[in-house]
Amino acid sequence: MSNPDTRKALLQIHFCVLLWGVTAILGKLITLPALP
Question: Across the chain, what does the average pLDDT equal?
Answer without folding.
Answer: 87
